[in-house]
């Protein structure tokens, strides 16, 4: 077969089919067969784009959350000058202490069973229903709160015995030695959040270091004093609620006791012909009445026992705030020295503006006085001139 015949054979349909099969085999090695569900259709492409867009949302949210976290204050910054713990107490701890005091008190009441003459005290708390238990727990909880507040007050009075602003560092408190006073307070080892005085001094030092103005620092300390007074007053809210609730519970016990007495007296069916039956019913009535009046007695006594210590403790804390104010005025504000050539603050600018306004008003008033004096002088000159003319006329008439 010559070359022409070979060329014609390469163009034959059999040869084309054979070459197509070879190409398919070659391409099958490079291709990876996928199921029909993995073939990219329009719906699959839309779902993929949607998942991709949903995947971008958490990234944006994370970036936004990071930006928000950068703008938020840290826990240390938020609690830097938070001195609520100087007067407030942990309600959970005091509730547990009050429960322990109540258990000890009820165990102590068992002693009164040894004698018939003292058994009545045992009956007041054990045989008068549920009201004495609740009243006793509220009173014991109040005593626990007052005890914890007393411990905090003793700690604050102890801090006032130290030289918080010693003159060894400097007789005057200036911007240059503010850090030394702050370091001295930190070396004492007291927690500023547990003391009104430490918080007041540290805030005053920081405020004076920023504003460098005596008046602005004094105004800040005054506002802090009002905040502390409000904080002390709000710390007694729960005890005041207990003082109100204890007598109310006693009256509730009275109503329950009277209702039990009346119901027991009218619970018998038919007439009571037997004397023993009548005595039994009267015993139930007197028992209900004793429950009624005994619960009221116990609640009123506990209310008085809680009210007086609460008033005394609140008065002591108010006296403590007065001592803190006196300490700041005597040992802090008196020794503050503003730096020479300091930039006036807003309060100083307003003060200078008021002085300028007063000077302008005084100048205007003086101008008015001068104008009025000029008018008076002119009138006096006219009166003198007229008087002189009258004298000359009178002299001329006498000569004639």
What's the layout of helices and strands?
Blueprint: H1 3-10, H2 13-30, H3 42-71, H4 75-78, H5 91-109, H6 119-126, H7 131-159, H8 178-187, H9 196-211, H10 214-234, H11 237-265, H12 275-332, H13 346-399
Helix pairs in contact: 5-7, 7-11, 7-12, 8-9, 9-10, 9-12, 10-12, 11-12
Structure in words:
The protein contains 13 helices and no strands. By secondary structure, the protein is mainly α. The protein has a domain at 89-335. Helix 8 (178-187) packs antiparallel against helix 9 and helix 11 runs antiparallel to helix 12 (275-332). It is elongated, with a radius of gyration of 47 Å. The protein starts with a helix and ends with a helix.
Helix content: over 70%
Count of beta strands: 0
Radius of gyration: 47 Å
Number of helices: 13
What portion of residues belong to β-strands?
A: under 5%
The class by helix and strand makeup works out as mainly alpha
* Termini gap: 183 Å
Largest sheet at a glance?
Answer: none
Question: How would you concisely characterize the structure shown here?
Answer:
With 400 residues, this protein is mainly α.
Main attributes of the structure:
400 residues, elongated, single chain
């Amino acid at each position: 077969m010559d070359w022409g015949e070979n060329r014609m054979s390469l163009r034959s349909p059999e040869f084309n089919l054979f070459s197509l099969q070879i190409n398919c085999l070659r391409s099958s090695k490079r291709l990876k067969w996928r199921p029909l569900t993995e073939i990219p259709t329009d719906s699959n492409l839309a779902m993929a784009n949607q998942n991709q867009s949903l995947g971008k949302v958490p990234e944006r949210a994370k970036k936004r959350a990071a930006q928000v976290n950068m703008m938020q204050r840290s826990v240390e910054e938020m609690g830097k000058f938070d001195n609520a713990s100087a007067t407030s107490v942990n309600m959970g701890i005091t509730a547990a202490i009050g429960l322990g005091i109540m258990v000890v008190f009820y165990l102590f009441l068992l002693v009164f069973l040894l004698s018939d003459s003292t058994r009545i005290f045992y009956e007041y708390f054990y045989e008068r229903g549920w009201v004495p238990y609740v009243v006793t727990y509220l009173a014991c909880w109040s005593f626990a709160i007052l005890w914890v507040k007393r411990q905090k007050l003793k700690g604050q009075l102890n801090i006032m015995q130290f030289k918080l602003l010693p003159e060894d560092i400097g007789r005057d408190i200036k911007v240059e030695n503010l850090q030394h006073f702050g370091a001295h307070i930190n070396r004492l080892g007291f927690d500023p959040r547990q003391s009104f005085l430490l918080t007041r001094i540290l805030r005053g030092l920081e405020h004076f270091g920023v504003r460098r103005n005596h008046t602005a620092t004094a105004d800040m300390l005054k506002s802090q004093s009002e905040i502390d007074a409000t904080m002390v007053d709000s710390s007694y809210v729960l005890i005041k609620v207990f003082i109100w609730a204890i007598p109310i519970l006693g009256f509730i016990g009275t109503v329950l006791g009277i209702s039990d007495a009346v119901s027991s007296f009218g619970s018998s069916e038919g007439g009571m012909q037997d004397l023993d039956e009548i005595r039994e019913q009267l015993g139930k009535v007197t028992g209900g009445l004793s429950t009624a009046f005994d619960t009221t007695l116990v609640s009123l006594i506990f209310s008085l026992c809680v009210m007086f210590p609460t008033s005394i403790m609140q008065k002591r804390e108010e006296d403590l705030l007065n001592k803190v104010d006196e300490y700041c005025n005597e040992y802090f504000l008196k020794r503050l020295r503003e730096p020479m050539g300091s930039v006036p603050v807003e309060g100083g600018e307003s003060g200078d503006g008021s002085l300028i306004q007063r000077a302008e008003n005084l100048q205007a008033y003086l101008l008015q006085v001068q104008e009025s004096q000029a008018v008076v002088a002119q009138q006096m000159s006219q009166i003198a001139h007229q008087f002189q003319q009258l004298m000359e006329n009178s002299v001329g008439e006498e000569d004639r």
